Write the structure tokens for this entry.
Amino acid sequence: MNVEDAIRARRAKRVFSDRHVGGDEIDALVESVRLSASCFNNQPWRLVFCRGPESLESVRTCLAKGNIWATSAQMIIVVAARASDDCDLSDRRSYSLFDCGLAIGQLQLRATELGMIAHPIAGYDPTRVKQALEIPEEYVVITLVICGYPGSDDSMLSEKQRTAEQERPVRKPEGENIFFDAWGRSSAD
């Protein structure tokens, strides 16, 4: 699969099978993150691959009710970082958030290439996740990436979520969030 195909195929699906995510797949996902770009090669991301019964269950209990579907995934990756591990910008932007986003974007494309789903979510209790996995206080839990192979049993989904599974959500038109040469210019001409 080439990059363009992976970009077009990637979807934030919510239905997972009970198929085990093996070591080769995990190694491929780890390598996709390791090779990601970062400011001065700081690599600020810290990932916890929860795949054993105890760590998975401890993270599952931290999920928001709307993300109950995530409990069927065979792996959850916890993404954390701390600002001090990345570029120190004069206006106090936390560049580590951007660098982690780049790394997870690559992980999503690699997962897609492997026939997997890698679905980042924001609906969880970050304080409880940190406690469950003994993540130091100075780190920010940025996202949980729900990972696994696609399944067919959508019984854990709400009606709205079932509908969303059917087709790719409509993307904003270019002139709404993509501009050329100045804010609000919607044409490359």
